[in-house]
Design brief:
- The structure holds two protein chains of two kinds.
- Chain A is mainly beta.
- Chain A is 0% helix and 47% strand.
- By secondary structure, chain B is mainly β.
- Helix content of chain B is 0%, strand content 53%.
- In chain B, β4 and β5 form a beta hairpin.
- Chain B is globular.
- The model of chain B has no long low-confidence stretch (mean pLDDT 96).
- Classes of the chains: A mainly beta, B mainly beta.
Chain lengths: 106, 118
């Protein structure tokens, strides 16, 4: 079965840039999406189609992809960005999520 | 704005069948895919399956033998049935929407916790 691999945790200081990676076989041929999930809340899409930002999502969130690795970048990270982040892609019409990355802002 | 709301029993016995319904408000089911996604306590997200408004379905291969998703366009609802439950099916179950062109889940329900226990 298809798998997406994320680092379990990433730490960043307030105001700095956080980068979360997501890798998968032939991910370069698929669209990657990113979701933010805060404790007790439903996930929210912050990036779709690799690098598009939905309305209402702050500009400090951006997405990119190089080869088979997608990256979510948060510039000028704020305390409110502390959350779990999941990447997601489609493989043969099956949705697959990465294992999630806990972003700590300290 | 578009809202999704899951409903169903919070406690189900092992070996029995889970039945959940997602009610869609302020939007038609047309032209969108409607999914069930679950999250075991303290764990990550797992896609269960989707249904298109026409009734076409696709399921997670790891759950395919136990899952049925159906749609009722007259009630603007879609439903999940998962049979032969075990404790491993204990999770927060979300319903969510995506469009073929967007390919991301843009609207999620608040989730409903289902516990499998005798």
């Amino acid at each position: 079965s298809y798998e997406l691999t994320q680092p379990p945790s990433v730490s960043v200081s307030p105001g700095q840039t956080a980068s979360i990676t997501c890798s998968g076989d032939k991910l370069g041929d698929k669209y990657a999406g990113w979701y933010q999930q805060k404790p007790g809340q439903s996930p929210v899409v912050v990036i779709y189609q690799d690098n598009k930002r939905p309305s209402g999502i702050p500009e400090r969130f951006s997405g990119s992809k190089y080869g088979n690795t997608a990256t979510l970048t948060i510039s000028g990270t704020q305390a409110m960005d502390e959350a779990d982040y999941y990447c997601q892609a489609w493989d043969s019409n099956t949705a697959v999520f990465g294992g999630g990355t806990k972003l700590t802002v300290l | 704005q578009v809202q999704l709301q899951e409903s169903g029993p919070g406690l189900v016995k092992p070996s029995e069948t889970l039945s959940l319904t997602c009610t869609v408000s302020s939007a038609s089911l047309r032209n969108y895919y409607w999914s069930w996604i679950r999250q075991s306590p303290g764990k990550g997200l797992e896609w269960v399956g989707y249904i298109y408004f026409t009734g076409n379905v696709n399921y997670n291969p790891s759950l395919k033998s136990r899952v049925t998703i159906s749609v009722d366009t007259s009630k603007n609802q879609f439903s999940l049935k998962l049979n032969s439950l075990t404790a491993a099916d204990t999770a927060l179950y979300y319903c969510a929407r995506h469009h073929e062109r967007i390919r991301a889940f843009d609207i999620w329900g608040p989730g409903t916790l289902v516990t499998v226990s005798s």
